[in-house]
Design a protein that fits this description.
- The structure holds three protein chains of three kinds.
- By secondary structure, chain A is an alpha/beta fold.
- Chain A has 18 helices and 15 strands.
- The N terminus of chain A is likely disordered.
- Chain C is mainly α.
- Chain C folds into two domains: 44 residues; 215 residues, MetI-like (MetI-like fold), CATH 1.10.3720.10.
- In chain C, 75% of the residues lie in helices and 0% in strands.
- Chain C is globular, with a radius of gyration of 24 Å.
- The chains are: A alpha/beta, B mainly alpha, C mainly alpha.
- Chains in contact: A-B, A-C, B-C.
- The interface between B and C is large, with 113 and 117 residues.
């Protein structure tokens, strides 16, 4: 019985001892979360991305200047809310959180998971530096200000002029009828017209884009926050427009299956000529495609609510302050003042190619040299009409993309049918 | 994680061994105590908590909570999302269980013939279990996406007209998910069958071969009846895994869409718990799953005439 | 029963000696082709992971199945330093190895007890373990999180080390019990007559005979511990000093941005290697399980 098989207790003990040693080697973070001279930041600015590199660089500089240690804990944007909320449940939440104010995080302030920072913004003299609209966006009614607004974005439509030219189109379509006609020409030239991430978050944004072609901002707020698409004739018309684009072949084939990554890749590789997408892609695009890309709004809709081409601009990451962080106000104050200092804001623009949520005078004359960032900055209100960004009106946890993906894949379905699926999201939530 | 745990087998030699009688010692059960305590604290504890949380209003992990009696259950009973998910789950089970079980049994029989190359095949059969779920998810986005492997292969053979967004077409999405489940399920289960089949005395096969029985007949008339109990146990485990384990892949591939065409019960547990978030409501769906789990096990036991 | 197994074993040895003679039927050929096609489909993820790890970001999405090797080994170097994978691997190893050792240390005596105790209590205990299969995966996360908080072990790796063996007990115990039952009682009686105690018998008589069972339990649990994501993410958290490799990798999914799948795949390849290594070491011991059991009988 001892012939073939031995248990070697000594070998196993050795392996376990090695594993324990491995554990103690690795787990030497040894941070005490209550130390007022240490700030722990849970960050969706992640390594390997321009934002993560920039933030880590500044965090190190801050420590060098003040002696206050910054621990950065990175976690991807989608998983961050779960991780933060679990830690909050344990009362071990990190001091500051870098994340967008979206349906995943809009319930934090009302539920007391983060603190109102309005007072601090005023006391620390930051209110004057910030773009008032950014403050308005981050303000949640009576609950207060959800966090310190920091970076922003714009979200226009990208046109690959070389591909348009190949199809005999010399200028960007001025209205939706031209867009439909141009899509036909592109298809005739064997080029896919518009890429869209029909299976993921880009399509949720696109639905609100189309709806707002016929719906003014005050009504749009109501629609996004409490539904009622079918009862709003403008909204139904907007959804019909989306259906018309789909039936006319404006979207890339099988658009309903495209992920956000597949959308950008289709555009970046010249497979599709048009794409609605945001400023976060400006520095990722291959140079050849960047050189021929023109940024503009979505073509004007006849009889619609806006007279200029439309786009979004908005406010993405900000700093949420947790109840634990509020116990270390002195350090937080230093850190936030550091982050909003002109020099560091400029560094975000020049090195990180970001759009900052501050007034032009707070920023000074810093400019990015990346061609698309420059083009994006030129999209002022004289050229495009900016739509209402739906992100903090759509209630927590909502996701339009499954029903929108179905709509995109269902030729012939009308806005009057699609609006029911959207309204159902609101009535299902009890 | 649950994939491997639940999917795994009672990889046991013939149950006949149980007849061993001596030496018996009832006090010996004390040796099971550490394991039992551990298991009760870390596994049964959370299971019990599920029965409590299902009767609470709990809007988000760190939000204030309160008991709301039968509200969750009542709302759930009138929620048509539950019925859509029930239907999808039923389709998933009815289609994938027989394919996986029969396919794995036949493959296991084949592996057990120990033809040249069977060793390398056995190693390969384990691959879906070795690679983490997110990696499998990324792969199938690449395989089934609009410009993915399936569409380009169809294009190569001139069947462009069949191209579709497999994971986003209401006609194919659920089928695609089921196919992924079958893809990973057959290989693993076949290894378990091969292990059990190798315990069958070769002379029984030899005798059948002499009588002129071909492989098909030997497989179903000889091997199957011998391992029927084992087949039943693996069916139970596969049932539970399919019932409980689909959420991870759905999260990575379709998030229940398009529309609600790939929304299963397990997905609802995740969706209500972490996306909406409504923890109590999510646990109420967990209760439904628990009941279905027990009911399914009893049904399978009956179907295999309760010999295990 | 002992007789039957012995006969089977002898028959097997005899056949091995005289070599196998088999008729190749059309059925066998068709099965062969099907099995190989299926095996190719299973190897696909490995192929895709490997070639993607050597590609540029755009190529991973635009030409997912063409090997281009356009980025060399740069991704491996980058991902290693970007995510501090060395630390992450050590954390994964720590949790996995200690949890695995603990799993076996408590499951082996329990299995021995169940296999040899008999009686109503043992049956009830076995039923209780079966209940463990009835927990829907994600549903137990929140209660488990609450438990971690109650034990004041939130954000520690040690909670996972305690939790994982608990969740693995049903399978480990039931599986090992089956293996224990293959050990002939006669061996135990002999040892008892020599005056050996229960523990000594377990260690000296049983353990050497159930190595295949232990290998099976070890490999299954190694894989599931190593690959765990959601529980580890939520409970251990994302502190770079504590996070496991499975928690570190998804930080590469960009913030509404564009994910570099080349980098992610390189990281995934690194994270898969230890699993393959362990599988390679334990596979043979696992596979011979039943044959050995029969010979011993």
């Amino acid at each position: 019985m001892t012939r073939s098989s031995f248990i070697r207790p000594r070998a196993i003990a050795l392996a376990v001892a090695a594993a324990l040693a491995a554990g103690s080697l690795a787990g030497c973070s040894g941070k005490s979360s209550s130390d007022p001279n240490t700030l722990t930041v849970m960050s969706s600015f992640t390594t390997g991305d321009a934002t993560g590199n920039e933030f880590n660089k500044l965090a190190k500089e801050f420590t060098a200047q003040t002696g206050i240690k910054i621990n950065v804990e990175e976690v991807n944007y989608a998983d961050l809310p779960k991780v933060y909320e679990a830690a909050k449940l344990a009362n071990k939440e990190k001091d500051l959180v870098i994340e967008n104010l979206t349906p995943d995080t809009t319930d934090w302030l009302p539920q007391g998971q983060v603190v109102d920072v309005k007072q601090y913004l005023d006391d620390w003299g930051l209110t004057d530096k910030l773009d008032p609209q950014a403050i308005e966006y981050w303000t949640q009614g009576d609950s207060g200000l959800a966090g310190f607004p920091y970076t922003g974005f714009n979200w226009p439509v990208w046109y690959n002029m070389d591909l348009l030219k190949k199809a005999g189109i010399t200028q960007i379509p001025a209205n939706t009828d031209e867009l439909i006609a141009d899509a036909g020409k592109l298809r005739a030239a064997g080029i896919q017209p518009m890429a869209l991430g029909g299976a993921e978050w880009p399509v949720q944004n696109f639905v609100t884009w189309m709806v707002q072609q016929y719906v003014a901002p005050d009504q749009a707020k109501k629609l996004f926050s409490s539904g009622g698409y079918c009862a709003n004739p403008g909204a139904v018309k907007g959804l019909d427009l989306m259906g018309r684009l789909r039936d006319a072949g404006v979207f890339i084939d099988n658009v309903q299956g495209y992920t956000a990554d597949q959308m950008t890749t289709a555009y970046f590789t010249g497979k599709a000529a048009i794409m609605p997408s945001g400023s976060w892609g400006y520095t990722q695009v291959p140079d050849a495609v960047a050189a021929t890309t023109k940024l503009a709004g979505f073509p004007v809709t006849a009889g619609g609510a806006y007279s200029k081409p439309t786009a979004f601009e908005g406010y993405s990451d900000g700093f949420f302050l947790s109840p634990n962080g509020a116990k270390k106000l002195a350090s937080v104050e230093k850190f936030m003042k550091f982050m909003y200092s002109q020099q560091n804001l400029q560094s975000w623009v020049t090195d990180g190619s970001q759009i900052m949520d501050v007034k032009p005078e707070a920023l000074g004359d810093a400019k990015s040299t990346k061609p698309l960032v420059v083009q994006g900055n030129a999209l002022t209100k004289d050229v495009v009409d900016y739509l209402l960004l739906p992100d903090n009106y759509i209630p927590a946890g909502f996701d339009y993309s499954p029903v929108a993906s179905e709509f995109l894949g269902h030729k012939g379905e009308t806005g009057a049918q699609f609006c029911k699926a959207l309204d159902k999201l609101y009535t299902d939530k009890k | 994680m649950t994939q491997v745990l639940v999917q795994t087998p009672l990889d046991a030699p013939a149950p006949a061994m149980r007849r061993a009688k001596k030496p018996r010692d009832k006090a010996l059960i004390a040796l099971a105590l550490p394991s039992l305590v551990w298991y009760v604290v870390f596994t049964i504890g959370p299971l019990c908590a599920m029965f409590v949380v299902a009767f609470m209003k709990w809007p988000g992990l760190a939000a204030p909570t309160s008991f709301n009696g039968l509200d969750n259950i009542r709302n759930l009973m009138t929620d048509d999302r539950l019925y859509t998910a029930l239907k999808n789950t039923a389709i998933q089970l009815v289609v994938s269980l027989p394919i996986i079980m029969i396919g794995a049994f036949m493959l296991g029989y084949f592996l057990n013939l120990k033809l040249p190359g069977h060793r390398i095949l056995r190693v390969i059969m384990f691959v879906p279990g070795l690679v983490s779920l997110p990696a499998i998810g990324m792969l199938f986005v690449a395989v089934l996406g609009p410009t993915g492997l399936v569409n380009s292969m169809l294009g190569e053979v001139g069947l462009d007209s069949l191209n579709t967004a497999w994971l986003a077409d209401p006609r194919t999405a659920l089928a695609a998910l089921i196919a992924v489940g079958v893809w990973s399920g057959i290989g693993f289960t076949s290894i378990l069958f091969a292990a059990r089949l190798s315990a069958i005395d070769q002379e029984i096969y030899d005798a059948a071969e002499t009588d002129g029985a071909n492989h098909w007949q030997r497989m179903w008339r000889i091997a199957y009846p011998i391992v029927e109990d084992y087949f039943g146990v693996l069916t139970m485990l596969q049932y539970l895994w399919t019932l409980f384990g689909s959420a991870g892949l759905i999260l990575l591939l379709t998030r229940g869409g398009p529309g609600e065409s790939t929304s299963t019960l397990a997905w609802l547990v995740y969706r209500f718990g972490f996306r909406e978030p409504n923890v109590g409501y999510s646990q109420a769906v967990g209760l439904v799953l628990f009941v279905l789990g027990v009911a399914g096990l009893l049904a399978i036991r009956r179907a295999f005439r309760a010999r295990f | 029963m002992t007789a039957i197994s012995t006969r089977a074993a002898t028959a097997r040895t005899r056949r091995r000696r005289r070599g196998r003679v088999r008729r190749v039927t059309p059925g066998i050929i068709v099965s062969y082709v099907l099995a190989i096609l299926y095996a190719l489909a299973l190897v696909l993820p490995l192929y895709w992971l490997l070639i993607s790890a050597f590609k540029s970001r755009i190529e991973t999405v635009s030409r997912p199945f063409t090997p281009t090797f356009s980025s060399g080994i740069g991704h491996f170097r980058d991902v290693w330093s970007l995510l501090d994978l060395g630390t992450a691997l050590l954390n994964s190893l720590y949790i996995t190895a200690v949890a695995l050792a603990l799993t076996l240390v408590i499951a082996v005596p329990a299995a021995y007890a169940l296999a040899r105790a008999g009686g109503r209590v043992a049956t009830a205990v076995e039923r209780l373990y079966a209940l463990g299969f009835l927990i829907p995966g994600f549903a137990a996360l929140v209660p488990t999180l609450l438990l971690a908080i109650k034990l004041d072990m939130f954000n520690t790796r040690e909670f996972m080390i305690l939790y994982l063996p608990g969740s693995a007990q049903p399978l480990a115990v039931i599986l090992l019990t089956q293996f224990m039952r293959t050990v002939p009682p006669a061996l135990e009686e002999t040892a008892m007559m020599d005056g050996a105690g229960r523990l000594r018998i377990l260690l000296r008589v049983y353990l050497p005979l159930i190595v295949p069972g232990i290998a099976t339990v070890a490999i299954l649990n190694f894989i599931s511990y190593w690959n765990d994501y959601l529980y580890t993410l939520v409970i251990v958290g994302v502190d770079p000093g504590l996070r496991t490799v499975q928690v570190a990798l998804p930080t590469l999914l960009g913030n509404q941005s564009i994910t570099d799948y080349g980098l992610l795949c390189a990281g995934t390849v690194i994270s898969v290697l230890p699993v393959f290594l362990v599988y390679a070491v334990l596979n043979r011991r696992m596979e011979n399980a039943l044959v050995q059991g029969a010979i011993k009988g």
